[in-house]
TrEMBL record:
Gene3D superfamilies: 3.30.70.330. One of its GO terms (molecular function) is RNA binding. It comes from Anaeramoeba flamelloides. Coiled coil: none annotated. The keyword Chaperone does not apply. The keyword Transmembrane applies. Residues 691-706 have a biased composition (Low complexity). This is Transmembrane protein. Keywords: Membrane, Transmembrane, Transmembrane helix. Residues 678-760 are annotated as: Disordered.
Amino acid sequence: MSQIEVNTQLSKPLIESSDSDVEINELPKDTKSTKPSIEQALQYCYSWMFNTKDPQTGKYKLLSFWKTKIMDAKRFGIPLYQHFKFIKYLYFLQFFLFAISIWYCMLYGSFEMIKWNFETVTFANLQEKDLFMLVLIEVSFYALYVIWVLTVRIKINRIRRNLSSKRKILNPGNFTVFVTKVPTHCQKQIIKEYFSVYGEIAEVHFIYKNEQLIKKCIRFQKLRINKQKLLLYKNSIDSKKEEKLKKIKARIKKTDGKINKKLVQLKQLGSKKYPFSGKCFVTFRYLNSCKKCLKDLDYSNIRKFFSKISCNSYFRTRKFQNKYILKVKQAENYDDYIPKNITFSNSKRRTRSVLIALFVVPMIIFSSISTKLLKPLGNKYLISFTIVFFSELSKFLVTKFIKYKRHLTSTQYESNKLRFILISDSLGYYIPLLISYYGPHFFIQVSQIVFVKSIIVSLLTPFKNILQNKIHLGLKRYYGRNHMNNQLSLNKYYRPLKLQLSNLYLNVLRIICYNLIFFTIFPLITIPCSFSLIILLYNHKYSILRQYAKPFNYGNRINMIVISFFGEMLFYHAIFNSSIILGISFRESNNQGKSYILATLLVLFCTMAYYSLTSIKFISKFCCKNKILSKKQFMKKLSEKDDYFSIGKPKLYNFSNVSKLLNGEKINEIDPNNDSISLISNLQSPNQNQNKDSGSSSGSVSGFDNNDNDNDDDDDDSDDNNFQIDHNDHNNLNNNTDDENFDNLVPLLSQNSSESPPFSLLDTDENNLTLLKNNIDEIIDEESFK
């Protein structure tokens, strides 16, 4: 470990940083390596598209689709309906029915793509030029499909091989240095300016002191356990002992008052801003910059820099004119130091009917009026554009309103967003066409406009990601603000993942049910108008699934873009033909119209199968990447020290009570000799075990104070003492059986985030909040113990 003596003036080292290096933005989202069986299952299911790697020989080979076995996929935990062989058979059936329906309409029916006026065109009067156009359209469509398959396969192969070599390099700990002995009055901008000479700084994360919050949480836990014991004792008392029962009731009420008071104290304490502890993380954007920083500090153990620290006038006194010794080392387990600030939520949720009344209904009125006002112009594309515009505007307003209000959890937000989009599409495209009395005159123009819009969106998707810098923000989301430490990994990956996947399956069933309704009931009432609804349902289907099956690497991201582009071309090709067929059959009055309806139903079945099966395909891919572990498997992975939930060397903690709490089980009493306070030390010091191995006897938590020199100042020692644990309190807690279930309070013991936001109990953040709040409410409620 290297040391730097810093006066009140910190001069910048003269070192130039080169940008020709591995950038932290290149870090894929699946840096957390999944289990080998999951990776094998993923390659196994999609082996027709990718070159898979043989686990025995280690060589890449192209596994034939026809040699796959359903039982092998079942061994990997993949259900039958998610097996790609089953899905691919249905794809073959879809193309077969699609081809039959097209040529059936050519020989016996009408085809409006050639004759835009509703005239009957049979095979007898079909011109050679028109027949050539039809053949050219079909050949070009299947050629694009083949190009899509080859492009995805080549691209995914190349990226998978590159990721295997980069995964070891692209570790956030390799880009980050841990700095201690920073002046407590120092600001982030000063740290950025000082370390920026080595290269571009991606993030500076300060660690704040929150020992008071931890003590308050321990006292609150004692009261909660005391009340639980009182309730259990009350139930065990015989009914004849009325006097004791009354006393117990009085004590329970008294305990309730104490719990409420302590809860108010926690809220008040959480709203405070904690002081800076003098320790921080500095993350560079380039790997070479971090190496240069460590190398320069190693060569100059005692280097004096002279540049004035900019601080508030309150601190510009002689007290801070002393020398500070900054200690810098490589951050091994970066994500352990970035815990999540847990809060409660008391906000009310708005109903779907209010949102529909606020946005969807005005959109219907404006779009319907606009179609009637623009009727004299006679421009069908202009009227169709207004319909698309108002429907898209309503969808945008509804989704943004839900997002910014933050009154739903992540899974509830996604589920409700799906419903809102379906409702806005159905009302925004179906009812305006029905009210305007234009009927089949507009759904072709609407489909063309939406088709062009979908192509533009698909092409601009990668540029949008670059502009918003989603890769860099994703790093902060996974290893910063929204990333849980190892104590909360169980809460994040075990129970909520089941809830999310269950909601995904429910949404797939809803999509299929909506398709059945839209493809059967609506066509029977007003056949031509319903296709505008079908087009928009498909148009937004990928945008919804992109938020569920988020790409975990560059291969999946490219795959998603390519599938969204060519998949929509496939669907619109089928919709275009089927809408024309329905438009003609709607006007036919003879017996020949029955044959048109039969052919149309075949096309409708193909499009519905494609829509539903594509959804299952993406969700099966999502399930393979996020394998749900059982409780026994989860504990086994932790005992094997498998790097499944965090980057770097994981730390083992006591998850027994947390798993029981999340599974809804009753918490048994723990041995009083159990070290319950060790969770606090592990929370603040994943490196404490390393200090014990080295023979250090210091009580410091950070793991860096053991190398302090005797010449350290008093201010530095006082900063370190703030992070030490009171061993007297530790022994008292061990002797008290009220701390048996202290593990349940792990979410409350997290430190502040990098920006030190207030511990507000009015902000909501995802499922771990509601889980914690519900469990505490159940324990406090007397009826839950009867």
